[in-house]
Design brief:
24% of the residues lie in helices and 29% in strands. The chain is α+β, with helices and mostly antiparallel strands and 171 residues long. It has a single domain, classed as 2-Layer Sandwich (60s Ribosomal Protein L30, Chain: A). The strands form 2 sheets. A 5-stranded mixed sheet has the order 2-5-4-6-7, covered by helices on one side. Strands 1-3-8-9 form a 4-stranded mixed sheet, with no helix packed on it. A hairpin with a 4-residue loop joins strand 4 and strand 5. Helix 2 packs parallel to helix 3. The radius of gyration is 15 Å and the shape is globular.
C-alpha cells in the first residue's frame, strides 16, 4: 500500500467497510477487503467522477426486515442503483460510465449458489438491466481480495489474500 501512496501523493485515502460507498470528485484511493462481498467501481473520466461500494448481500428485496433506503450500499442491487442514479442526476450518460466488478469469493465447500456467487450474479444482472457494460472483473474463487481504486485514473489494484486471511479476516 505504501508504494501506491508514494505513486499518488495527492490522493486522499478512504477505507470502505461493509455497507459503505459513494461518489468521489476529489482524487481518492478507496480501498477495501472483500470475501464474499462485492464492490463495483464506476469511473467517468470526462467528468472527474468515480464511485465505489462494498456490498454484503445480493438483493434488498430478499431481506424483508431491512429498509434498504437506510443503508443503500449493504445490498449489491441497491448500491448499483444508488450510484448510477447519482451519476445520472449529474447528467452523466450510460456510455460515459466504465464499470468494474470485484469480489464474490466462496468457501472451499460452499453450496452451489453461495452468497458470493449470488452477489456477483446480481452485480452483472443489475448493471446489464441499467444498460451499463462491464470493462473488467476479478470475481469468484476461494480467496478474498484487497482492492485499491484510484478515483482520478480509474485504476484498480487487486491482491488476492491467502485462504487463512479470508476465513479469519475482515469482510
Amino acid at each position: 500500500m505504501q508504494s501506491l501512496l508514494d505513486r499518488y501523493p495527492d490522493h486522499r485515502q478512504a477505507f470502505l467497510n461493509v455497507g459503505q460507498g459513494g461518489l468521489y470528485e476529489i482524487p481518492t484511493m478507496a480501498h477495501t477487503v472483500l470475501g464474499s462481498c462485492v464492490s463495483v467501481t464506476f469511473f467517468v473520466p470526462s467528468r472527474g467522477l468515480a464511485g465505489i461500494f462494498h456490498a454484503l448481500l445480493p438483493r434488498a428485496e430478499e431481506y424483508r426486515l431491512h429498509a434498504p433506503e437506510a443503508t443503500p450500499y449493504k445490498f449489491v442491487d441497491t448500491a448499483i442503483q444508488n450510484i448510477v442514479a447519482r451519476l445520472f442526476h449529474r447528467g452523466v450518460g450510460r456510455h460515459e460510465i466504465e464499470c468494474k466488478v470485484f469480489g464474490g469469493a466462496s468457501a472451499l465447500f460452499a453450496e452451489e449458489m453461495s452468497v458470493g456467487r449470488r452477489n456477483v450474479e446480481t452485480a452483472f444482472v443489475t448493471l446489464a438491466e441499467l444498460g451499463l457494460r462491464v470493462a473488467a472483473s476479478n470475481v469468484g474463487g476461494e480467496r478474498g481480495r484487497k482492492i485499491v481504486f484510484t478515483t482520478r485514473t480509474g485504476e484498480i489494484f487487486v491482491r488476492l489474500l491467502n485462504s487463512n486471511a479470508q476465513n479469519g479476516g475482515r469482510r
